[in-house]
Amino acid sequence: MRLPHPLYGLYERRLAASLPSDRMPRHIGVILDGNRRWARSIGKSTARGHRAGADKIGEVLAWSEDVGVEVVTLWMLSTDNLNRPAAELGDLLGIIEDAVRELAATRRWRLQAVGSLEMLPESTAQALRAAEDATRDVVGLHVNVAVGYGGRREIADAVRAYLRQASEQGLDLDEMAEQFDVEHIAAHLYTKGQPDPDLVIRTSGEQRLGGFLLWQSAHSEFYFCEAYWPDFRRVDFLRAVRAYAARERRLGR
Length: 253
What we know:
Blueprint: H1 5-17, E1 27-31, H2 35-41, H3 46-66, E2 71-78, H4 86-105, E3 110-114, H5 122-135, E4 142-149, H6 151-168, H7 173-179, H8 182-186, E5 199-202, E6 221-224, H9 234-246
Parallel strand pairs: 1-2, 1-5, 2-4, 3-4, 5-6
């Protein structure tokens, strides 16, 4: 429920001020869900919903910077989404390409594409690669743009990359099996070298991961927000971070 403007602003400021700076997440994963339902709820086209969702991204990245987050992973398109009707998928891919170019043009964040680029149209893959190249030297918030991403596929790709590397080192199959360990998968994930997500946020009221960062989220905290992604507000973000800070993280212990 939205508060009247003066009270809302006061509440938001107090909420931000209450966050403990020593308990902020380093890495936040975000499942951007609800664009289509948001569009239907106001009688607009699906493409309009996706555009509204794309417009929200810069705000959320700025909010993340404000609380000291180092890495944000945005799940913008899953491998399953590639099976959507051609017209909708074409619109969505075009919106993603535009959004990635606009984010890169700000030179504010370092972008990294995570996903199976070979499954995407060449124009989309090229837009993602160009954004990576254009922001490679940017210092600041690291933004993983997950497009054509699926958690199971990422793990399969990691195992495949390990097998290729081991083969190039001259190991036979028995030697690979003997030395294979979980660390070999971690070292070949799309997000290798990054901290695992401390907090995963999903909008639109759905309470499932759907394959997002399956390996990396083993010890993540989850926060499910009722708002559709285009309606996701700073106060919703701050509540998610506050909930994370209030939890006792056991990390499997």
